Amino acid sequence: MRLKDAARRAHKIMRSRMDDQKSLDLGEALVRMAYGGTFSDEMSMVNRMLNPGLWNAALFMSRGNIANMVWDDNVVRVLRSWWPTAEIVNRDHGPAYENPLSFSWNMKIVNKTPESPRFYKTGYKRMNGTAVDMMEIVRHGYAIAPVFNGDRSEANFVQAGHIGLDFDTGDERSLLGTFSNDPLSRAIVAFGYTTPSHTPERPKSRLIIALKSPITDPLQYKELVAALQRLYPSADPAASDAARIFYGSKGCQTWSNWAVLTDEHRDRILASYREHKKDVEYRAVVNAKARERYSSNVPIHDHIGRLVDQISNAPDGERHSAAWRIGKTVGGYIAAGDLSRNEGEEYLRSGVLGMDPGANKDDHLRTAFDGLEKGLGQPVQSRGARGLNNDYICRSN
Fold it and tell me: Are 102 and 219 contained in the same domain?
């Protein structure tokens, strides 16, 4: 059957069973459900509505035969919004299914490819929905991020209703099945999906944690990310800034769990993380006092200077990892008392400024500073303290 004939037949079926307004309302609801609220130019509404699963839902609704039926979660959501009095039975799901969630999304970035480089910063639209909406957008390949007032940047951060954790280890630690059997993940994760670079041989995935209450302070966002990364040691530590993009993955595999990180559970995670930081800071003070009794054969500033040169000289494709790695090391020396934070930041800034003119220096400097923040929780042993007893040394891990 030709598309035009199919469209006419479908429209006739709906018109025969509903009045005009209900027919229009249903069509709009079905399109919103299937495409996460998006309307792309290259696909007509008729094409979208011809999805067989959606038409089955439409026909059951038009006949009033929806009680005691088992529906897909997305269909249930639309039916409930359109026909609130219906008694609908659906698959078991958690609180994230209906928990309000605000986020931004960008249809100009599909998988990891933007229509233009400027869309890394612009083109983000706010959506007030749920984690279900977010998963549908991700499955269509569109990027998601926190909500911003203007272009994407930490300075324009408004709020975040979700946290994303990346797993790029390429082994069983990055398999969705690993998380589906993990008690912590089942308690706090809304959904997970395979990222665009995922392959069966080298699995990569992302977990999305929906928050019961949104975060409105970028520093609090970064602290919660750090606290969650401590609970997930194999998570990518670089995915921590409050302006983080999480790319969609068209046709990805998904794991739907629909849990929500409650305020009480969030506070317990943060309290544990803060106690951990106090312990790390205490050990850093002990290390620093012990280190005062020893002299250094290699001045620490000369050593740091050589380290940041590695950022300046890193080849294209390795600059991000170099900035993160050296930033984390500098943060470890700050935590150990070998240099001040201002000194460490100046070293990193000089290393990034020494990059080739074509490098995205703002992004690399932010990555270096994110690494520094991570390193502050992991004091490293300076060259001048190699002879100290292990009781006084807090090595980086």
Answer: yes
